[in-house]
Amino acid sequence: MPIDKRVATAADALRDVRDEATVFITGFGGAGFANVLLRALCEHGPKDLTLVVNSATHPASLTHELIAAGLVRKVIASSGRGRGAELSPFELLLRDGRIELECVPQGTFAERIRAGGAGIPAFFTPVGFGTDLARGKETRTIAGRDCVLEEAITGDLALVRADIADRYGNLAFRHAQMNFGPAMATAASLTVAEVREAHEAPIPPERVQVPGVFVDRVVAVGG
Amino acid sequence: MPQPLNRDQMAWRAAQDIADGMVVNLGIGIPVLASDHLPAGRDVFFQSENGVIGVGPAAAPDGIEPDLVDAGSRKVTLRPGGSIIDSAWSFAMIRGGHIDVTILGAFEVAANGDLANWDARVPDKGPLVGGAMDLAVGAKATWVIMEHTTRDGRPRLLEACTLPLTAVRCVQRVYTDLAVIDVTADGFIARELLAGMSLEALRARTGAAITPAPGCRPLVAPALGHGG
């Protein structure tokens, strides 16, 4: 049967997501948030999710809807701080011990995901050495540099925002939309992309930024 | 007591030390202002940790590209020769020593170069570490721009940081509203001191020993920004 990874709706694309799934979510600074998929996941309503997302609190990402709906047990992120002095919904849950946060330096966050998708179970990095974020982690001095052992992150589902897809699941991004997309697409057992347009015709090979090998389903959402 | 430098003047002073051809990462807050104050003709690449290599000026209201943002969520432009990569590659660039200098904001810097700039221990506010630890460890040089003292007058340059560390022994230079300070094996060395300010007055506002460099110069900046 000819390969065609395009599905009609976001709900369709997420129909088999289960409770306790570990979910990667792309997006940074207003670019590349998979908000159509996030809204659909919220409606699907799996519980006790672990989210792997750069910020738990970015106002432009619908990550906060999943959190506010009580579907999230734990977040792995480089930011869990809301803007302004008032506490965000995430911070309220964190204060009350109703959600767990694993705070990770952003480069270590990206590399743990990259490693997860690349078959590297763990790596040593100098980042974080001597800080609270390395507490309890194995350390080693390598070539004179003090390093911390960081474990890879793999997961069940990646929600990726891109600009264009083709039927083979190849993806191309627009500007800084790319951010965590390529790494996250490799680290999840099911990768779903929402795109502005999903074409029958293949993306020119040299324009492909994530090969369809890493992508399972694509949904055209416009925007 | 002479008028301390304002935010733009502090950023201006740091920008004067960015050399031609450097690759520079600017933190949010005062550091990002440095890109507005580069000496004319200086050709520099600003790297933003979300993968924008060659950040240009902020986008004009009628020229906004919603997906072209920097690490501070500002809508920006791309300079000629710029490129866009993914986050994992961007942090490979940072950790791998390909960034000449990162200029970061800070709460505290210790005399041994320890940096505290991510957790002010505000009750119940969630943590935000972002890329600060990666930058402080990975860039070839880490410079800090911060006010010399806290709002209630306590020193930010200390023997040892009191707030959670971002990285150990990483800061080489600090630009404050009162001085330009090198962090050396011999502790804090003042290279420039606010014009009209005495060394005793600086010492009274510094929480560790600070020594004037031979030929310590007056710190002066052009009128810039609000109140400049």
From TrEMBL, chain A:
UniProt entry keywords in alphabetical sequence: Transferase
Keyword Secreted: no
SMART domains, per the entry: CoA_trans
Stored InterPro entries: 3-oxoacid_CoA-transf_A, CoA_trans_fam_I, NagB/RpiA_transferase-like
Xref: SUPFAM superfamilies: NagB/RpiA/CoA transferase-like
Single GO MF descriptor: CoA-transferase activity
Classification via Pfam families: CoA_trans
UniProt key word Transferase: yes
Name of the protein: 3-oxoacid CoA-transferase subunit A
Organism: Vineibacter terrae
From TrEMBL, chain B:
Superkingdom of origin organism: Bacteria
Keyword tags: Transferase
SMART domains: CoA_trans
UniProt xrefs under PROSITE patterns: COA_TRANSF_2 (PS01274)
Family listed: Belongs to the 3-oxoacid CoA-transferase subunit B family.
Protein name per UniProt: 3-oxoacid CoA-transferase subunit B
GO MF annotation terms: CoA-transferase activity
InterPro entries in the record: 3-oxoacid_CoA-transf_B, CoA_trans_fam_I, CoA_transf_AS, NagB/RpiA_transferase-like
Taxonomic lineage of the native organism: Bacteria, Pseudomonadati, Pseudomonadota, Alphaproteobacteria, Hyphomicrobiales
The organism of origin for this protein: Vineibacter terrae
Coiled coil, from the record: none
